[in-house]
Amino acid sequence: MPQPAPELADIFRRHGPAYRQAHSLPLHQLKLMRAIETCRTPALGGVVEWCERCQFAHLKYRSCRNRHCPKCQGAARQKWLQQRRAEILPAVYFHVVFTLPEALAAIAFYNKKPLYDLLFRITSETLLTIAKDPRRLGVELGFFAVLHSWGQNLHFHPHLHCVVPGGGLSPDRRQWIHARRQYLLPVKVLSAYFRRRFLEQLEKLYAAGRLQFFGEIEALADPAAFARYLAPLRQAPWVVYAKPPFGGPLQVLQYLGRYTHRVAISNRRLLRLEDGQVSFAWKDYRTKPPDQQVKVMTVAAEEFIRRFLQHALPTGLQRIRYYGFLAGCHRTARLALCRRLLAPPSSALLPQIPPLPVQSPSRHCPRCGGILARMVILPCRRLDTS
After folding, report:
1. In the prediction, which pLDDT does 188 show?
2. Can you give the pTM of this predicted structure?
3. Burial grade of 343 (CB within 10 A; 0-12, 13-18, 19 or more)
4. Domain boundaries, the chain
């Protein structure tokens, strides 16, 4: 009889203790592992609910709600989409991706907080500055950016996904200026500006002593070596990719759901956990035709855990950020202005998202549909910290 596919929690429970003993992990990675291991288990406590109709006792354990847990992102994603519904405008939307070169990814690996913040800052500056140029669109954009740090094979690959409406507010804010339907901004111009500004600010971080160098890049602590390391990057093309526009509001919301609350690997991609080896599905986008892109990779459980943990975000770092007329300080007023300038009214074009389920003390019995009454609250259990 074939074994059921494993979950990420199964891998952590079986091989996590040995991994923690063999490696000195930062606190945020230890907390991440513990949260996923205990998610929806007796360790977090739960409730027992009773159905009087069929005498069924329903046991439900609590979720960890960690942002890296694949089990906990569905509800978080639905809640986020419900909140974003009123912010979607009746316009064509574009998806622009800014990627760090591999040489800078090596620096970012040991300096996640300052390099991630710099990636957000320079990406937003690039889009806002080029869009404001009268030779381009000459508008104020509004967009949000989502940080991903992984590729399909779980290697370290930091990049930002930016979702941008095709147009923006004129300088006097009296009209909405539409971009061409199949074209937002020139990617070569975006790439050149992004490269120049990122390297300028990276050198300032280095001069201020805010970067650390370990392992294979330890030699970059020497200023001359650092300058030589950056020199080739000044001429090489940096990847800025603008995907074709993906339609109106309904398509935007469906698209956002796939990106905003994604974790490094979902449980559905995990295939086997046998003899200390983890097998998972991944897409090799270099393979043609597309129907042959899905492949299976098998690595040691220790290597799999290492790859997953390198994508753990530093504590307090926001992975979704808003810019332009979507910036928090004036989002409500600017969105109201955009709706007045756009026609037809955005409410006429916005899709209906199913409302979130109402949380109430009573739930329906999964057997007979009767009302479940909460009978017992189970406390959390004290955990072994190994």
Report:
1. 94
2. 0.87
3. exposed
4. 8-66+361-378, 73-264+311-349
